[in-house]
Amino acid sequence: MREHLFRLASVALLLSSPSHALQTPDEKDAFITLGTMGGPVPSPDRSQPANALIHNGHTYLVDTGDGTVQQMARAGLRLSSVKAVFLSHLHADHTGGLSAVLALRNQTNVNEPLNIYGPPGTRELVAGMVASMQPAARVGYGIPGKPWAPPADTVTVIEMHGGDSVKLGGINVRAAQNSHYDFAPGSVEDRNYKSLSFRFDLPARSIVYTGDTGPSAVVAELAKDADVLVSEMIDMAGTLETVARNSPNMPPAAKANLEQHLSTHHLTPEALGKLAAAARVKRLVITHFAGGTPNPARTADYATQIRKYFAGTVTFANDLDRY
To answer: Which of 57, 216, 254, 259 is the one with CA 20 to 30 A from 151?
Structure first.
């Protein structure tokens, strides 16, 4: 009995959060921008890229950057409510918090298998995380003969490619391969490394998440007539300033490669305006601020550039905003 009460108390402590913030089964559908900072350089003001799609009281994580579990707690979302995870690509700023999601589910006895959807390589990524969980799972809470569930039994990985779709919990999900990478179509690299954008069609509305991408007709088609487009955006000047502060001695060749990556694999405000206009979306929500926390002057400048092409509603997301 004492051991049973000890385990229950430990689990209750780990799952606790303010009662006024707890998610209830009848909560309205929402897309929560848990983390809106573009990585990989951390920020004191914003968490790394992570989002939560809420439908019928369930949580579907969309990217899981470092700090995802903490941001979920701040949003009033329980780990036990997470039914699936979607990873747009495997850069660490978008996956760094997944290990904590998996390990803490295991530690708090959430044994329902969690489906993780992502591009090729996701299975290898998750296998490494599962392996890292095993020593703690074997020792459990230190009660003889009472290990936690085998970590591998709590996770299922489904790798996706552009054009794939899945239906779960009343949500139709479609994936499109975007232009965050520019490997030649059909090449070995293209087959093995992909970056995905996702469209979530709910009964009442449609939400498209670009993940990290450059200009892309494929993404524009995926987002066609969507109610909400949640998109990355890059401030080239601001990003390069941040890089210079953090890596003042970066070799010229590395700097040139970085500038190429930033300019072709991400969306500038004008490129984002063109994408939103081509897709005819109703609302544009901007996240993944790679140039640092935008000040009012910069935000106004971004909006001016975007509205040269897009006449719909434009919103600059903050951490924990709900749409």
So the answer is: 57
- Which is nearest to 261 in space by CA: 197, 316, 212, 188? 212
First to last CA, the chain: 45
Spatial distance between the Cα atoms of 133 and 131, rounded to a whole number of angstroms:
5
To the nearest whole number, what is the mean pLDDT of the chain? 89
Higher local confidence (pLDDT), 5 or 146: 146
Average pLDDT over every residue of 298-322? 95
β 165-168/171-177 pair status: antiparallel
Q: CA 306 to CA 284: how far, in whole Å?
A: 10
So what's the pLDDT on residue 244?
75
Q: Which amino acid is at 303?
A: A
Q: Taking the domains of the chain in order of start, what are their residue ranges?
A: 2-7+25-322
pLDDT digits (tens, 9 = 90+) for 165-204: 999 999 999 999 999 999 999 999 999 999 999 999 999 9
In this predicted structure, what is the pLDDT of residue 27?
53
Residue 141 CA: distances (Å) to CA of 17, 106, 138, 144: 22, 12, 9, 9
Both tokens of 315, joined, read 């919103």
300 vs 141: CA distance, rounded Å: 52
Write the class of the CATH domain 2-7+25-322. alpha beta
Q: Are 118 and 94 in contact (CB under 8 A)?
A: no
- Of residues 156 and 42, more confidently modeled: 156
Strand partners, 200: 173, 207
User: What is d(CA 162, CA 178) in angstroms, rounded to the nearest whole number?
Assistant: 8
